[in-house]
Amino acid sequence: MTNTSVLNTGIRNARNVSRYLYGQGAIVDLAGIIANRRGTSTAPAVFFIDSFFELHGLPQKLDAVAHDDHVIYVDTINEPTTDQINLLKNQLVKVCKETPCAIVGIGGGITMDITKAVSNLLTNGGNAEDYQGWDLVKVPGIFKIAVPTISGTGAESTRTCVMTNPSSGLKLGMNSDFTVYDQIILDPDLTRTVLHNQYFYTGMDAYIHCMESLNGSYRNAIGDAYSDQTIRLCRDVFLGDAMMSDENRAKLMVASYLGGCAIATSYVGVVHPFSAGLSVVLGIHHCVANCIVMRAMEQFYPEGYREFWQMVEYQGVAIPEGICRDLTDEQHDRLYESTVIHQKPLINALGENYKDILTREKAKEIFLKM
Amino acid sequence: MTNTSVLNTGIRNARNVSRYLYGQGAIVDLAGIIANRRGTSTAPAVFFIDSFFELHGLPQKLDAVAHDDHVIYVDTINEPTTDQINLLKNQLVKVCKETPCAIVGIGGGITMDITKAVSNLLTNGGNAEDYQGWDLVKVPGIFKIAVPTISGTGAESTRTCVMTNPSSGLKLGMNSDFTVYDQIILDPDLTRTVLHNQYFYTGMDAYIHCMESLNGSYRNAIGDAYSDQTIRLCRDVFLGDAMMSDENRAKLMVASYLGGCAIATSYVGVVHPFSAGLSVVLGIHHCVANCIVMRAMEQFYPEGYREFWQMVEYQGVAIPEGICRDLTDEQHDRLYESTVIHQKPLINALGENYKDILTREKAKEIFLKM
């Protein structure tokens, strides 16, 4: 076999989301899609919905929910843990008399990842931590539908769902073809109410992971094409005059989906490992953590660095600063360990001997720039 | 009822190819993929292979074929007919003791379309002409795998398979979610032996249908993103110095796939209806017919026209000329009828009253420019 066995375990043969429905107001079609799943059965549908919408309501009245369905609002203060997934799964097993006919995630990366994990767990049994890794899920999950309400992470199109095991500290998803959504509904009306800074942080996740891919050494023409188009769309949005106009929200929703597709056959680079360090040690959310890391990335990605800060300035976005200034040596040690553990992306960016470049001192220096 | 095979309404919820495997030499993985389908069964696999490879061999020895499998070489002199599909289906019913475990198409648009149609027919029964139209296929076909050996049509990623009914003259595909491939293998090594002109004609199918989409009035952000990236890749390939270098063949294979995805949520325009006229009345193959039509498209697509002819010149490609010069009035009448029948694309390009623009005289004038 000649080349680019690009990815770690077994993602050479990429699984697509089965169906995507795109359009302003497309969420109204959710009712019909779930009705098809119900058929003549009495099995309920389950809805995980970002708790923001409990307070503020969705743009369209959600007439997809039937009498016996279960709606669970998801608090997004913390990123998902295995304990939380197990709890949600056990709760559903208790209240659902039948196996659900569908499970729907309406929200951002956290909500979409929880939906994926619970879907897998309901049919595979056991606990979430049993499936952290690659291709450990054995049978298809419950039919799952994503309705993203913020754009950027690509959780709607990837084969993973990130979660942390609080006992072991392991932050790792259920990487599996069975984790990919059966249906996604891309309705740009749903991102209208996202807060300015959050819209930027999350959108930049797509930009950053594609920028890392295109600068890596493991490349292939299809991953490159997805990354290239994602970056162009992000440029239109974040170097344009109204990043949250109808047109730009539509573009960013597409960028998020295509950026997720790009991940299927490519690797990230230096940003994501450092960002993971910030998340694991300091509990900082993934997307804002990426942006913070960009403070120290000029040496690795000079062009991406320049463009990123141009976008920040253009959109008047606040990126937290100085967050590693007062950390202890022990905290810096943990930051280092939880960064260099990400071998594949760091090899992609820096080569096999990446630890010669990213020494403990060098990593500390980088964290101090944030 | 009869308009183009390309688009109609019910495609809002787009079905993706289930899995794609990309890479130089990736065809070697075909054996493993089929082995998974066989499992412990003794059901054979069926291979439709472009007859070119009977003479010249595939770049990799095709060790995917087992003893009881059926290999059928496909002659690509003419585009598929319903009679041909029925014949192939009946032949397989006769020789296969069990329902095949998989059906593989190795070739260009013709071979890939035949594979789709026979796959549907083997499980749905009846004749090919029963399923010409929209969503008439009732159950999934045999698990089907495409291995394109030329790039451009996007047959590997679309939900149709074009065929002509010789009795009725109807050229229309089985437009159905069940027509979409379960697996595609994108191996750019396989396009190495394509002839210069044919490589150009077929590649330009992707460029042209995306150019038409982006100039139409029915637009959406996801179709636009696919079209935009497809056109960029075509520019790299056809305005580059070696359109058939390893890198450019890889890019064109990706462009073909993404261009097929673009079709899922968008319409073509003026080129494809005129091209269909040439195919139906004069029997000219689809891709070269598109290129011939471009001789007369300056008024509708001035920028696309300019860029197309720039590419033709740059690559030193021969485009047939003067093919409508000596036609009878009756032939011109038939050309007109088989062009204006394509309502949706023509409305997309010219508006509801497209027949006011495309009068019989105007159409003749356009055909005479070719």
Structure in words:
- The structure is a homodimer of 370-residue chains.
- The first copy, chain A, is globular and about 60 Å long.
- Residues 1-10 of chain A have low confidence and may be disordered.
- Helix content of chain A is 45%, strand content 10%.
- The longest helix of chain A has 19 residues, at 196-214.
- In chain A, the strands form 2 sheets. Chain A has a 6-stranded parallel β-sheet, with helices on both faces. Chain A has a two-stranded parallel sheet with strand order 6-8.
- Chain A is of the alpha/beta class and 370 residues long.
- Chain A has helices spanning 30-38, 52-56, 82-95, 109-124, 196-214, 221-238, 246-263, 271-282, 286-293, 302-315, 329-340, 343-350, 354-357, 360-368; strands at 13-15, 19-22, 45-50, 70-74, 102-107, 133-134, 144-148, 174-175, 183-186.
- In chain A, helix 2 links the parallel strand 3 (45-50) and strand 4.
- Chain A binds chain B through residues 1-6, 12-23, 26, 29, 33, 177, 183, 186, 188, 220-222, 225, 228-229, 232-233, 247, 250-251, 253-255, 257-258, 265, and chain B through 12-26, 28-29, 33, 177, 183, 186, 188-189, 220-222, 225, 228-229, 232-233, 247, 250-251, 253-255, 257-258, 265.
